[in-house]
Amino acid sequence: MRIWIANHYAVPPNLGGITRHYELAREWAEEEGADVTLWLSSFNHPRRTFIDAEEKREIQPVSNLHLRWIWSFPHTRNDIRRVLNMLSFAFLFLIAGLFRGRPDVLYASSPHLLTPFSGWLLAKLKRCPFVLEVRDLWPDTLIKMNGLRNRYLIKSLTWLESFLYRRADKIVVLTEYQRRFIAEKGIDREKISLIPNGIVRDSWQRDPSAKKRYRQRMGVDPGQFVALYAGAHGPANALEHVVRAGRYLPKDSAIVLIGDGPEKDRLRRIKEEESLSNVYLLDPVPKGEIYHYIDAADCGIISLADNEIFRGARPNKLFDYMYIGKPIITNVDGEVREIVEANGVGLFSGVEDPRGLAEAMEKVKRKTDEEKNALAERASQYIDRYGDRKKLAQTLFWELLSLGGVEMEKVKEAKRSG
Questions:
Q1: Does this entry carry the keyword Nucleus (predicted)?
Q2: Among 38, 47, 101, 282, which residue is least crowded by beta carbons within 10 Å?
Q3: Digit-coded pLDDT (tens) for 54-74
Q4: pTM (global) more than 0.90
Q5: Which helix (H) or strand (E) is 326 found in, with range?
Q6: How far apart are CA 141 and CA 232, in angstroms?
């Protein structure tokens, strides 16, 4: 089976960013015997730099997995250059795809809708099924975050959103909220599949001797209690309140933020203006290393803005923290809070509440080793049931098979004989 995956922001694990699509592609190529092409940008969005030749050479080759790097316009902030970045990737993906052989299924992912539109057009021209993955509810997220006010642009994006929902042969969502949201627009619920984020089990091995080294890299004192945030630093992440929680922490506690984004400089200014010596802002690190940082911390933070659209979010950080077995503190009152509280893996600290975050850290600090071990076990059970990317990839693969008109028994027989 030949599968194309297109995601503007996809990256391999040796780079910082969204590894979901690379991991799905690798799983399908290695375990399912599919021939997979992943279309991704050579401009790395979190770092705002181009991926160089040396970084590409570091990527471990995988049989039947082909990486097609697409140039996209560079940008450093959310201005017209960011729009050109999106337009250039979608257009060049469309042009490059015209000169490649026909896939059995074309799988294109948001958040922005231009890449999926190019994917739909290519699927139409090549007469293959089109699968739309919804990572973010555009344009609703833009509107509710006050980032989009032009009524003509809103009308155009809303039309494009509806067009893609109706024309897709299948829609893949990451959260239950997204499934409800799309179904309420009149889309058949049977057409919508929930394939949440997850982790690749056994992709990381705990190394107790590495903890000291990674705590040193954070810059924290050896005995400090450390809460770690790892991810994007944008308006949607509401990290100002995480940084300001440093005001209310005792000297033996610290907050570490790893990542990059348009809010990073403002967060640095807040830290300096308020002399928050117990808050540390680090640059992005590769996916493989972030697990060492999480393991060296005492708990993980999930932060999003107080906005209705984010109450249905289920960020990948949720799975990363649970995979390592760390308690979670979240300020997101919605699907994340429900999962954290229902599974007993952390605390809700209140919406955009710096003092509440500091108080939650103190509660976690007081947990006994026995309580922490029980929490880690519950987290592991949740990952096994809902967050194992190998299982999720297999489930999605069989759904794609039925769309692609490939007979399942022939694929199973080919796997057995291979």
A1: no
A2: 101
A3: 999 999 899 999 999 999 999
A4: no
A5: none
A6: 16
